[in-house]
Structure formats: C-alpha cells, structure tokens
Amino acid sequence: MPAATVGTFLVFLIILVALVLFVTEPVSIDVTAIGIMVTLMILGPWTGVSPREGVSGFSNPATITILAMMILSEGVRRTGAIQRLEKTVASYTGESEHKQLGATVGLVGPLSGIINNTAAVAVLLPMVSDLAHENGTSPSKLLIPLSYASMAGGMLTLIGTSTNLLASDVASRLATDYPSLHAFSMFEFTHLGLVVFLVTGVYLLTVGYWLAPSHVTPRSTLETTQKEEFLTEVIVGQESPFVGSTIREALEEVDFEANVTQLIRAGAYHREPRLSMTIREGDTFTIRLTEDALRTLHEVEGIEFVPEVTPQGGLDALGPGQTLIEIVVTAGSDLVGETVESSRFQDQYQTAVLAIRRGGETAYERLTEYRIRPGDLLLIESEPDTVDRLADDPNVIVAGELALQQFRSSKLPIAVGVVFSVVGVAAFGLLPVMVAALGGVMVMIVTGIVKPAEAYGAVQWDVIFLLAGVIPLGRALSETGGADLLGTFVVSTADFLPEIAVLGLFYLLTVAMTNLISNQASVVLLIPVAVDAAARLNANAFAFVLAVTFAASTAFMSPVGYQTNLFVYGPGGYDFSDYARVGGPLQVILGIVTTLGIATFWGI
C-alpha cells in the first residue's frame, strides 16, 4: 500500500470537511466549492495545486461547454417550442393518467439528450403541471417521473448533463497516465444510455406509477375533493368584526375550513391556540387553509395579510389581469436562505406573497421569519407583466401556463436548427463540442433569439462556480497519492469479489455519495480512484469511468441528489421519503443493468 504523506492527509481532511458542508449546507454548495479551491491553493506546497491550476476550472472546457449549453437551452425556451407541445399532448392524453405519464417520459427523455436535462425539466415543469391539473391527475404522479426520466435521458449524449461533460474532461486529463482513457465523443455511450432510459421508462410506467404518491389534489377536482392547503399569516385590525369573538365563532362566520396553527399576542407565541380563545385587536394568526378560503378571507374587513397588505377589495374585486400564481424556488436562487422580507422579493416585483408550502408538509413558522429553501413553492398575487418578468428570472420557475405570444415564435426554426447543428458538428468531429456550443450561442445572439442580458441571466452561476471549485480537488487527490491509497483499499475487495462486482461497488459508492452531495463533486473525487483501482486489477479503466459517470447522473433517492429532483419537490408536494420509496427500487435495478451493460459493451 502506498505511503500516506502530509499532503494526502490534508486533502482527505479537506474532502471530509467539504462533505460535511455539502450535506449540511450552512452555506450554499457553490460557496463551499470556492472555499475548497482557495484552501487547495493556500496549501499548495502540500496539495500540489498551484494558483494557476487552482483557478483552471473557470477555463475548463467542461465548464465553458456547460455555460454555453445553458444559453442554448434558454434560446429554445424563448421561442416557446416546448409550450407549443402542450395542446398537442393534451389532445392525445385526455384524462388518462397512463397516457399523461407516457407523454411526460417520452418527451423529457429525448429532449434531455439535446438541450441538457436540467433545462429540459425547467421548461417542461409548467406544462406537465398544467396537464395534470386540467385533466384531473395529481401532479405528484407525474413530476417525480419527469425528473427521473430527464436524468436517464441525459445519458443519451455527451451534452445531456453537465456530469457527462465533467467526467469526459477528467478522463481526458488522466489519459496521459492511462492510455486506454480518452474524452467522450458525442454518442460514446448512447447505446447504454438508451438501455438505461428504456428500463427507467418501463419502471416509471409500472412499478413507479404504483409507488408514486398523490399528495397534490388537481385544481379541476377541488370542488369535490379535499383542497390543496397553504400557509399564510394575518393580523386582526381594530375595525375587524372578529374582535371580541372566539376563534371558533370567527371560523363559523367566514364559513370555510381552516386550521389555526399559531397565535402571536404581545410577543408571546401560542402554538395551536384553543378555539375558545377570544380574538383581540393586533392578534397575528398563522393559518393553514385552501386557495378558495384565501379568496374569502381577502374580503373580510379588518384583516391584513403579512408580510404585505394586498390591494383593497379582495381578489375577486381586482382587475381581470390580476391572478394568483405559484412559483418554485430553484436550487441556485438568490432567495435561498433569505426570508420573504429580507429578500425584498415583493418590492422588486410589486407582488404579494400570500402563502408558502414546502414539499408535502406545511411549516408553522411565521412567514416573515420563514427561511426559503430550494424547491419551496410560493403562492403570490401578481399581474401579467409580473408573470412575464418572473418567467425570465432564473431564481424561480413559474409553475403555471404562460401565453404563447410572449415567446419569439418566429425564431423557432432557427433555434431548433442551431441546437441540432451544434449536436451534429460535435458528433462528426468537425469541431470540439465547446467550440460548437459557443458558436451556437453567437448565432442565437446575432439572430435575436436571445438578447445579451438574457444570455447572462440564463447561466446558473452557482453551477459554474461549483464546477470551477471542485475540479482542482480531483487533481489534488491524484497529486498527493490519495487516489492511489483509496484505489488500493477498493482493490483489496477483489480478493473475495469478482471484477464485475468491484465495478458494481463503484457504482453503488458513487450513488451513495451523489445522493448526499453534488454529482459534480462525486465525479471529480471518484473517477481518479476508479481508474487507479482498474489499473491495479489490470481491468478496463474506461469501464470504471463509465460506472462512476452513469451512477453520478442517476441519483434518485433524495431531493438533493440532483437539481431536477429539487425542481419538482415543491410542486409535487413531496416528502423526502417519497424519493427513497419511488427511486430506491429503480436505483437497484439500474445498478444491475448499468454494470452488466458496461461489461457487455466495453468489457471489464
């Protein structure tokens, strides 16, 4: 076994601290990644990472390609290409849940192989949500499959997911020491990706359909079923008719079902107050109630909504353009970690946040003190121009229908042509994928499909900084001998396991890590270890690289395992356990299928 050096221990310590920070998230994961990069450079004499190498992640071809693909995806979204599908899909599926599920899986899979799976889910989420709501299907039945199918579809091409691009770059860097390795071509693993996608699709249409929950009741059936609930907060004013009444009498007077979860009076908090308590002026109530009940409460005199009072007259008396809309907070949003008040979201958009829901649970904190997390769903009151602005904001996803005329429909043929040209040029080796993608971005900007400001706004900068921050960690692991040390440990399992089982072990190890931390970090950390283990076993190093790559791109068992899982977390009303229940069996099945597929197609 190779001797451990001071540098080895330092790198392992950095990795340990990074893992804790990635899991607990006291700061966002991109900030943690930058901290890793800075620490490696400061400790350069021991970690082997010079300042030039430390910041090399920003100029890395994988990082630049991912940035370009984000802009290309935005160009497709700006044309309304995805929204055009909604009427066609709805006319085919009708009220059949299986047809809706089949259409969801069938659309997002191939699309994820072309424009990046995260972007595919972002543009399809509103369409799938509307499809479910309008046809009597619980969105919970469709949204986890949307996420899972996008992950499997992302493995159809090199550009389907950022993980593939990063894995390709790591493999090409290791090719100097391991001649069997090389950068991935566009369709390097499409045949295995197709098998993975088909197996995932069959599972989602059968076992997955049965295991998926039905937490969210569709809007079209709210009149006859239990209604979707939100959390909101109100202050009782002096002129309110409720002053002097008991809580029970007030609820009977407004004639709707609601759960009063908290009363704040004179600075004192009363959790689940008794219905016999008398209401006083200035009382602040936290209430869990339905959207219809929210409308009714707006019409009651002397009731103010916290943190902002909505326009006078109630929702039904507002102008025809004003509406209630739901938005989902994205993983890299500026809103994460802020409260509704501290983020100044309402001032920026001149809108009122009426309620917040997180997954399948409704929290009990005051809205003004409620720390926003990725996947939270906010119910807001807005106007059409505000909806359009929100649709352009990368911090949120509008989980509702948008009018087609706001898109640049005339640019649709050009946008689609650009994307297919990028894929074709890279596939035939005419240009490197990075150059092809940047060329596509230039064409989209010059032709007006995407404006320069929109291009900058389309980039998920937290992902870019995350990539740039973790890339030097892989180099440090190799330079200090850490990869050799871990590889030796894993190879020792070959004393009692066949090589194919060791390959499967790397798949499971990557899955376990990715379900807790960033998939990019998993690839950077484990590919050097897997390659070293393969070399010690005299096995096919490329096969081990693929095992890590596929495992990191298909993490189904937690909402934090992949960004698309977070996108659907709020709109689907999911609990953390739903991902383990629906994704667990699929994870095991794909572990077997992927391992056998790699052994069949590439050998061990």
Automatic annotation (TrEMBL):
<keyword id="KW-0472">Membrane</keyword>
<dbReference type="Pfam" id="PF03600">
    <property type="entry name" value="CitMHS"/>
</dbReference>
<feature type="transmembrane region" description="Helical">
    <location>
        <begin position="542"/>
        <end position="562"/>
    </location>
</feature>
<dbReference type="InterPro" id="IPR051679">
    <property type="entry name" value="DASS-Related_Transporters"/>
</dbReference>
<keyword id="KW-0677">Repeat</keyword>
<dbReference type="GO" id="GO:0008324">
    <property type="term" value="F:monoatomic cation transmembrane transporter activity"/>
</dbReference>
<feature type="transmembrane region" description="Helical">
    <location>
        <begin position="582"/>
        <end position="602"/>
    </location>
</feature>
<feature type="domain" description="RCK C-terminal">
    <location>
        <begin position="219"/>
        <end position="303"/>
    </location>
</feature>
<feature type="domain" description="RCK C-terminal">
    <location>
        <begin position="312"/>
        <end position="396"/>
    </location>
</feature>
<feature type="transmembrane region" description="Helical">
    <location>
        <begin position="414"/>
        <end position="446"/>
    </location>
</feature>
<feature type="transmembrane region" description="Helical">
    <location>
        <begin position="31"/>
        <end position="49"/>
    </location>
</feature>
<keyword id="KW-0813">Transport</keyword>
<feature type="transmembrane region" description="Helical">
    <location>
        <begin position="489"/>
        <end position="510"/>
    </location>
</feature>
<dbReference type="InterPro" id="IPR006037">
    <property type="entry name" value="RCK_C"/>
</dbReference>
<protein>
    <submittedName>
        <fullName>SLC13 family permease</fullName>
    </submittedName>
</protein>
<feature type="transmembrane region" description="Helical">
    <location>
        <begin position="187"/>
        <end position="212"/>
    </location>
</feature>
<feature type="transmembrane region" description="Helical">
    <location>
        <begin position="6"/>
        <end position="24"/>
    </location>
</feature>
<dbReference type="GO" id="GO:0005886">
    <property type="term" value="C:plasma membrane"/>
</dbReference>
<dbReference type="InterPro" id="IPR004680">
    <property type="entry name" value="Cit_transptr-like_dom"/>
</dbReference>
<dbReference type="GO" id="GO:0006813">
    <property type="term" value="P:potassium ion transport"/>
</dbReference>
<keyword id="KW-1133">Transmembrane helix</keyword>
<keyword id="KW-0812">Transmembrane</keyword>
<dbReference type="InterPro" id="IPR036721">
    <property type="entry name" value="RCK_C_sf"/>
</dbReference>
<feature type="transmembrane region" description="Helical">
    <location>
        <begin position="146"/>
        <end position="167"/>
    </location>
</feature>
<dbReference type="Pfam" id="PF02080">
    <property type="entry name" value="TrkA_C"/>
</dbReference>
